[in-house]
């Protein structure tokens, strides 16, 4: 029996079992050297100081049964669990335990409460939320609900009032800690000031369980007149009625009054004068004094939610404690400037730091570097883009040297000290990687590259996300704006008669296709099935044809490639919506040996015919190629995909309801046809982390050229899908067979359990027997071939449904989880023709 195994604690036990106990003991020792410990679902991250090195572990708990480790140490680079990640986890568990203990045991105040009309909040309140990405147009609907305890009138005088905060994501209750920081949310404006304040009081990250001061709760209540977010904790679904509002008004009045004086303590004979301490107020903010040569910091009060992390931060960066003043000192210019570059803003946001007038005066010559970008258009429609670090007068050579030395500051010729915050350097690294299609390199003061038209919208969005100062040229804006804002699209010049038959969303889809074509780009029209992708494509083809008729250059014809079963459907739809287009149907055994472009506007063919007649299709320069049902080219190595990529065209488009079926390789294959080279493929020897980066970039870049609308979003008046469950009663031989196997199943499982079989063996036997029972329900001949087709209840019901559907002229798609069922079914259908 192992005695050195730590107590089982999920998921700590699993983490410990993935490594040796020697590593566990070493991790326990290192757990006191952690700083910046942050939990953002699903990642736990931080920094670990080990000797002269600082490591940055991150544990991904997306899979709770098999957490993934990321660390820049040699073991972590192999994605094996290292001592640094384990130390980070233990530190986090200890931190949570101390927080729970502190919140469950109220602290006793040793000083009298000052009489103030309205207690002051401990720090200036922010107006902007920093821990969430907000977007009013692309964000997921988000709101919040603040739950007040029913006995709040009695607890309001305690100056530690317990509250609960719920996040409502699309109406679904979610703990604020589990909000996905990688997604954008649409938060009503009236919430922003309140949530920004809560965010600061929680130390920069929202928490579900709160304990607020009187002044903080008063601030929230006084600013909730237009925000319907209050509810009682025992009735969270009920918003405040008139009686509730009356109670809130009474509570506000109570909080505005000073709390009652505590009764003075009775003196005792052995009473001693109280020892003088650094701070009599446990809520005092952090105090910062210093210059470029040194820093002197007094920690925030012990009641500050981030007191422990502030202490860890100072220890990690070699601050030394002066016992006489209880102040922490850092006396080294290089370390001081590096520390200020990285943490000066966080000292204010996370710890409410207050800087002394002397410090502000001695650091008045500090400036912070910024990222700037410029672009200039070339004659061929591309742009020369330059991104550089604006170091406020420091020369580029000094800046390059500082970056090479991992130094977070540089001194300019005019005496300024230019701070280079690590987040800014990380932005430079990320931009370099994105703009060079994944080629990693050390950050440089300047990055220049030529930008083709296909990447304008993506790069503009990337620069915005990185907060780069950039004013795009007017031509750049015109090309990218329409992709990022569909309302800026211009109508396609199709016929008025055809436009009058289009719904508004179909006109937008046609205009989107036309905009891409004008700018020599391609795209994926991926509207939900039933929204009319074909008619939008026909309107677009009509616009292309009309434009070419007005040009003096020789006309080019368009090409539509679709599955063989849809060739006739395309021809019928073209005749219906654009009868003036001259169509050539190149399909079937009697197709001509060549295509005569004279007298035709459009060719319709199938994927199989295209592959067989590739020499015929290879020669012309097509005006536009539309590939329908694009799942036929999602395998880039298939003959269909290879044949399409060989063709020459001014514009390339695909129609599909499912751009991604199996993996992102499907999407890459589509863009290999649409815009070759636009989306980079991962290198052959990539790591798992690199694969994640490439997958994310594929999503970001492809999203700009995919237009997908759902029925619910654009055409709610269209009928919803109708589902009907047909119950088939087992009868005769099928029912008898089912009962026999059911009894056999129960007996087998009972015998296994009585015989002491393992749990896995019993479970596997149950799964196997359940599979047999499901097969009997689907088709009894799978287990008893001598039965007839009339013994299958489902087959009898299917015959009736088939007869009704065929009479109504409907097409049917049948699914089964068992291939043998489909084989039986095919024989039955062949026999009945």
On the 0-100 scale, what is the average pLDDT?
78
Computed over alpha carbons, the radius of gyration is 35 Å
Strand content: 15-25%
The coarse silhouette is globular
Low-confidence stretches: 1-14, 105-123, 265-281
**Number of E-type strands:** 33
Kindly, what is the distance between the CA atoms of the first and last residues, rounded to a whole number of angstroms? Answer: 71 Å
| Number of helices, counting only DSSP H or I runs of 4 residues or more | 29
- How much helicity do the residues have? 25-40%
- Profile the largest sheet: 7 strands, mixed
Helical/strand content category:
alpha/beta
Written account of the structure:
The chain is an alpha/beta fold and 833 residues long. The chain is built from 29 helices and 33 strands. Helix 7 packs across helix 8 (242-256) and helix 23 packs across helix 24 (688-703). The longest helix has 23 residues, at 732-754. The protein starts with 11 loop residues before the first helix and ends with a helix. Residues 1-14, 105-123 and 265-281 have low confidence and may be disordered.
């Amino acid at each position: 029996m192992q005695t050195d195994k730590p107590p089982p604690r999920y998921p700590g036990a699993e983490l410990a079992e993935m490594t040796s106990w020697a590593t566990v003991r070493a991790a326990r020792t290192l757990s006191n050297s952690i700083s910046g410990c942050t939990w953002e679902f699903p990642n736990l991250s931080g920094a670990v100081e080990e000797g002269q090195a600082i490591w940055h572990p991150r544990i991904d708990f997306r899979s709770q049964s098999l957490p993934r480790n990321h660390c820049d140490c040699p073991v972590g680079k192999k994605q094996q669990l290292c001592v640094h990640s384990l130390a980070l986890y233990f530190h986090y568990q200890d931190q949570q335990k101390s927080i729970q203990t502190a919140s469950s045991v109220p602290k006793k105040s040793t000083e009298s409460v000052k009489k103030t009309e309205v207690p002051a909040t401990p720090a200036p309140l922010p107006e902007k939320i920093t821990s969430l990405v907000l977007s009013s147009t692309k964000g997921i609907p988000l709101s919040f609900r603040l739950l007040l305890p029913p006995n709040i009138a009695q607890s309001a005088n305690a100056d530690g009032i317990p509250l609960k905060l719920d996040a409502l994501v699309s109406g679904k209750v979610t703990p604020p800690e589990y909000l996905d920081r990688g997604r954008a949310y649409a938060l009503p404006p009236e919430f922003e000031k309140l949530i920004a304040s809560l965010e600061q009081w929680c130390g920069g990250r929202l928490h579900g369980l709160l304990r607020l001061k009187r002044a903080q709760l008063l601030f929230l209540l006084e600013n909730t007149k237009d925000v319907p977010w209050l509810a009682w904790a025992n009735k969270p679904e009920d918003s405040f009625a008139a009686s509730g509002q009356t109670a809130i008004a009474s509570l506000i009045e109570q909080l505005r009054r000073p709390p009652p004086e505590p009764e003075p303590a009775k003196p005792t004979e052995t009473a001693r004068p109280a020892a003088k301490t650094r701070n009599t107020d446990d809520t005092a903010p952090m105090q910062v004094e210093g210059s470029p040569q040194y820093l002197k910091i007094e920690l925030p009060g012990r009641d500050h939610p981030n007191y422990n992390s502030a202490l860890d931060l100072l220890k990690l960066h070699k601050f030394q404690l002066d016992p006489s003043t209880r102040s922490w000192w850092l006396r080294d210019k290089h370390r001081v400037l590096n520390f200020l570059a990285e943490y000066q803003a966080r000292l204010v946001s996370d710890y409410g730091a207050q800087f002394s007038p002397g410090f502000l005066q001695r650091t008045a010559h500090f400036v912070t570097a910024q990222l700037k970008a410029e672009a200039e258009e070339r004659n061929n429609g591309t742009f020369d883009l330059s991104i550089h670090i604006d170091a406020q007068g420091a020369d580029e050579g000094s800046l390059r040297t500082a970056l090479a030395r991992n130094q977070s500051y540089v001194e300019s010729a005019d005496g300024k000290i230019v701070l280079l915050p690590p987040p800014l350097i990380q932005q430079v690294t990320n931009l370099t990687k994105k703009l060079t299609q994944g080629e990693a390199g050390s950050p440089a003061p300047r990055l220049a590259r030529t930008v083709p038209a296909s990447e304008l919208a993506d790069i503009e969005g990337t620069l915005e996300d990185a907060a780069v100062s950039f004013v795009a040229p007017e031509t750049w804006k015109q090309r990218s704006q329409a992709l990022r804002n569909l309302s800026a699209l211009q109508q396609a010049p199709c016929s008025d008669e055809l436009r009058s038959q289009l719904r508004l969303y179909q006109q937008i889809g046609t205009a989107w296709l036309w905009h891409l074509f004008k700018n020599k780009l391609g795209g994926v029209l991926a509207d939900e099935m039933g929204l009319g992708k074909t008619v939008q494509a026909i309107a677009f083809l009509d616009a292309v044809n009309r434009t070419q008729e007005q040009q003096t250059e020789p006309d080019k014809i368009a090409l539509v490639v679709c599955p063989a079963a849809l060739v006739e459907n395309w021809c019928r739809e073209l005749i219906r919506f654009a009868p003036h287009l001259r169509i050539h149907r190149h399909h079937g055994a009697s197709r001509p040996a060549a295509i005569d472009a004279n007298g035709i506007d459009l060719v319709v063919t199938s994927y199989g015919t295209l592959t067989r007649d590739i020499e015929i299709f290879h020669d012309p320069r097509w005006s536009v190629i539309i590939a329908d049902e694009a799942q036929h080219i999602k395998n880039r190595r298939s003959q269909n995909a290879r044949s399409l990529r060989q063709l020459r065209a001014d514009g390339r488009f695909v129609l599909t309801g499912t751009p991604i079926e199996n993996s992102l390789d499907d999407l890459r294959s589509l863009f290999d046809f649409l815009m070759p080279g636009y989306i980079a493929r991962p290198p052959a020897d990539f790591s798992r982390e690199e694969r994640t980066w490439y997958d994310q970039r594929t999503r970001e870049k492809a999203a700009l050229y995919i237009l997908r609308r759902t029925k619910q979003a654009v055409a709610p008046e269209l009928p919803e899908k109708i589902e009907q469950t047909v119950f088939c009663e087992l009868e005769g031989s099928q029912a008898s067979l089912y009962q026999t196997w059911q009894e056999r199943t129960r007996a087998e499982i009972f015998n296994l359990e009585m015989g002491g079989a393992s749990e896995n063996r019993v479970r596997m036997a149950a799964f196997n027997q359940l599979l047999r029972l499901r097969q009997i329900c689907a088709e009894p001949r799978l287990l008893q071939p001598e039965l007839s087709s009339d013994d299958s209840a489902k087959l009898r019901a299917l015959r009736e449904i088939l007869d009704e559907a065929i009479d109504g002229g409907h097409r049917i798609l049948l699914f089964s989880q068992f291939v043998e069922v489909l084989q039986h079914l095919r024989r039955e259908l062949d026999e009945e023709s």
